[in-house]
Amino acid sequence: MLIKEIMTNEVVTIDIDATVFDACKKYHENRVGSLIVVNKNFPVGIITERDIIERVVLADKNPHETKVADIMSKDLKVVHALEPVEKAADLMREHKIKKLPVVLDNKIVGIVTVTDISNVMPQISKRIEMEVLSSRYLNQMIKIKATYGNKVKVFDNDEEGMHYIEDGTAALKIRIPENIDASTLIPGSEYYWTGFLRRGRIMGDEELYMEVVDIVPAP
Predict the structure, then answer these.
(1) Which of 79, 214, 66, 94 lies closest to 150 in space, CA to CA?
(2) Three-state DSSP class for 166?
(3) Residue 118: helix, strand or coil by DSSP?
(4) Cα–Cα distance between 214 and 219 in angstroms, integer?
């Protein structure tokens, strides 16, 4: 199956020469978590609400004068519309991202998400089903043994203290508080994770995650 068969055709974009104020208006009008930045309809970057807060508001810059090009993340991963679905899944897994702009003939033609892929790939569908079943423990403290994956990144930027753990068949995002030193965690090592199962918005999507309160290396 090709990516063009499962992608969403509507993509909210903004021109590279637009101002940050223009981006804010697009956020308000479309209620999205990020905007794909285009140059002559080809994706060249991404801008998020976090970018605006950290690189404009906190930097005391004028949103009417600051260009989107000045604050966007430029290392944008894209996938071709005629690639197989497995290609998008591999890119998302490798770069820990959940959305990919889709290009064809040097222009953006859609966007594909992990949800799109889960509907056609049984192994991912199983993982999501397992996470949904876990919702019966929502807002309760749980303890699980799992392998530490790594930090969750959005186009190579760390996502606000979010990490992920896995057990070979299922994966779950976790939020590690500042009072726990996450720098000591070793990707690929097993730990006992204790925390509260929550539901909230992560990278723009509603999903389950663990709010960690304790981490102990597994023997």
Answers:
(1) 94
(2) strand
(3) helix
(4) 16
Distance CA 63, CA 27 (A): 14
Domain boundaries, the chain: 3-118, 122-217
- Verdict on whether the full-model pTM lies above 0.70: no
Could you read off the pLDDT of 189-219 as tens digits, one per residue? 999 888 888 888 766 667 788 888 889 998 8
Q: What is the pLDDT of residues 131-164, one digit of tens each?
A: 544 556 677 777 888 889 887 754 444 556 788 8
Kindly state which CATH superfamily the domain 122-217 is placed in.
Answer: Nucleic acid-binding proteins (2.40.50.140)
The conformational region for residue 118 under phi > 0 = left, psi -120 to 50 = alpha, else beta, is alpha
Beta strands in the chain (DSSP E): 13-15, 34-39, 42-48, 79-80, 99-104, 107-113, 141-154, 157-166, 171-175, 190-202, 205-217
* Domain boundaries 3-118, corresponding CATH code: 3.10.580.10
Q: Residue 101: what residue type?
A: P
How far apart, in whole angstroms, are the C-alpha atoms of residue 30 and residue 71? 20
Q: Using CA atoms, how far apart are residues 109 and 180, in angstroms rounded to an integer?
A: 43
**Pairwise CA distance, residues 217 & 135, whole Å:** 25
